[in-house]
Give the backbone structure.
Amino acid sequence: MMKEQVAPLPGPDGIRLRFPFVTLLIGALLVAGTYAQFVLGGATFRPDGSFTGTPTNWVLGAKVPSLIAHGEWWRFLSAAFLHGSFMHLATNLVGLLILGLLTESLYRPVRYVALFVLYTISGTCFSYVISPDISLGASTGVMGLLGALLVHNFRYRTWLPPAWRNAFGVLIGMVFVQLGFDLAWQQVDIAGHIGGLIGGIVVGCAFRSQALPRAPMYREWIPAPAAGLVTLALAAYTGWGMWASCENNPELLRAGRMRSNFPRIREIALALERRPYMVEARLYRAQLLFVRGEGERGLEEYRLALKQQPNLLSGRGSSRLRLQILDFHLSRGMQKYDGADWDDALESTRYVMEHGVTDAQRAQAHNQYAWVLADKMRVRLDEAEQHSRESLRLRPNEPAYLDTLAWISYHRSKHSEAYRQQLEAIQQAENRGMAGSESMSELYLHLGAIQEKLNRLTEARASYARALRTRPGYLDAVTSLRRLSGIQEPPDPLSPSPGQDPAVVRGIL
């Protein structure tokens, strides 16, 4: 007995996945581009697995805003075929193979290639407009694939098999996961990803699906032959640009192969003679100079770059350089302090106050600024007090910062207030387990000086003795005790002792 045949439901019988020939070809091109980076960049790695030849990436076609601004528009496409490391390449290849297999099956090879090229360009363009950072990688194209699949599944949702309809929610989830990852990781070009996603959605609407013959025949805004010709023209233009760039930038290619910073700095300088507008190279040279310990020259290059393009450090990718500049100003402030160059010390400290990454850095800078004004220069005590209180706002109850505030009150002849503040500083230090440590010596010394001004000479003598116990041979404490033995008026103010700078013990430097 034969079973009754059930008529199929309206709609497609299914979507057959095709062999991803074009996807594999694009993947091979990504591998070839990354291999060229590796070889031309000296075939070496950094400890984090990334390539050492940063100038090589500029030559081969990374998104370098200053070069694009001077007519190298082919970089909008070439940047997708370069990567920062083999891990970067691997993650993009996985996304390409998964999403590319689906997209190629839906749109067929010619439309699929046009899609990939156009939304790769859209992602790089969006990144160029939004972000001043150098960027590279095929992730703009991968995000475009995701956008194309989203728009396809939405437009043809009625005609899709159940498994494909259910995949729409998964695709939406992938978008949010990727954007969350982008926000969490500073090195990711989030503008490029968003631009690629938007490009995939917009360009995806220009083509109709080739895998659903029973679906409505939406108008195709870009005919397949025209799309193929445009793609070939863009590919040829990009290839010509990459070849011309390699021919015209021998200095950058040499710099990319070099392992030593000194010859690399020299080659970057030669490149800048021919292309003075390349602010990214100038910042890179500043970074190398900071690494070599030539901070003043690095700072000069940094200022020249910012003069050329003021928003250059607003991008996420410049965080490493910002930290280097910050570290330079911290060390420069210390060197100028040790050399009694107070104006330059204040200049570097002011930079840290304005650009410090953490509250701790800014608090330390405010405290150091206040200390130099009050103790070293003895000027603008009102301003010194403001900075001292700001340091305590950022780091409440910090003993060294309370000590600075008390010392400012001492110089302003507010001795009762200074006494109360100094006792609080000592109490906070003891609460942190610092009792008996060398760090307490200057706290006790200052307490003794304040007690002398209040005519509490016995207590002052005890404070100086405690300073000597915590730091044997402390010259200021010895001098103060000898002076008190003759009951003489204390000098105003105490001078720092030779040897170890009290500011180092107090933790302000």
Summary: The domain at 260-314 is CATH 1.25.40 (Serine Threonine Protein Phosphatase 5, Tetratricopeptide repeat). The chain is about 70% helix and 0% strand. Confidence is low (pLDDT under 50) at residues 1-13, 487-509. The chain has three domains: 21-248, 260-314, 397-509.
